[in-house]
Structure formats: C-alpha cells, structure tokens
Amino acid sequence: PPAAGAELSGVFQNLQKAECYFTNGTEKVKYVERYIYNRMQDVMFDSDVGHYVGFTPYGERLARDWNSDPEWMEQQRTAVDWYCRHNYEGFIPFSVERRVPPSVSISLVPPSSSQPGPGRLLCSVVDFYPAA
Hints:
This protein is an alpha+beta fold. It has a domain at 14-96: Class II Histocompatibility Antigen, M Beta Chain, Chain B, domain 1 (Roll). 24% of the residues lie in helices and 34% in strands. The chain has three helices and six strands, in the order E-E-E-E-H-H-H-E-E. The strands form two sheets. Strands 1-2-3-4 form a four-stranded antiparallel beta sheet. The chain has a two-stranded antiparallel sheet with strand order 5-6. A hairpin with a 4-residue loop joins strand 1 (14-23) and strand 2 (28-37). The model has no long low-confidence stretch (mean pLDDT 88).
C-alpha cells in the first residue's frame, strides 16, 4: 500500500483464465489455460499441444518450470476430463440450450439525391442467439 497521504501510482491486471471448447457435445473437447499480466499473455497451456508455451521471457521461464513437473503436467493434460467434461452439464443452460429470439425492425429509407427513385425498406434483425 502507498504511504499515508500518497496516491496510487498505477493500476495493474493479473488474470488467469481457463477455457473449455466443446465440439459436438463432449465428443471433442479442448482445454486452454492462459496467464495474462497487464494485457500481455505470459504463458498458455493448450490441451491439443499438451504443454505450456511461453510468450514473454517470464512466461518462457514459467513454461520451462511447469513442463518439467510430471505431476503438474498430468493434472493439466487431464483437465479436459476433470474440469471441462465434469462441468459440461452446468454449462448447458448458458451455451447449448441458450436461445434468444431476434429483435426485428422494419423502417422506410427515403430516397436521396445520390440514390433517386422510390424509397427502400430496411429490415434489421439483431440481438439473437445462436447465430445460425
């Protein structure tokens, strides 16, 4: 903390992110873990790659250390099962079953000097999920 009466000199961000990507239910699952500091990704684990990759000097050091620990790497390589597939049922209401009906509006676009002739109808369909 700053000294009494002193102002904070800055803000920093330290973020660890775990992501699960599901294809065709749980048939194909990918686990990605990212470590980010001040909007710069230091190191990442991708279950398709099977080991950590560093993107900064600090991240390269972390990747080297973590990749050399067999117990830690076994836990990371099996995260597809114990983290992603295990939590899939909880994700379903927010992902697979999520449905948002479209918002539709129709408006008349009057003719302009650059596009003479009759006006045109503009139909906008927005804010729906899934995109398909």
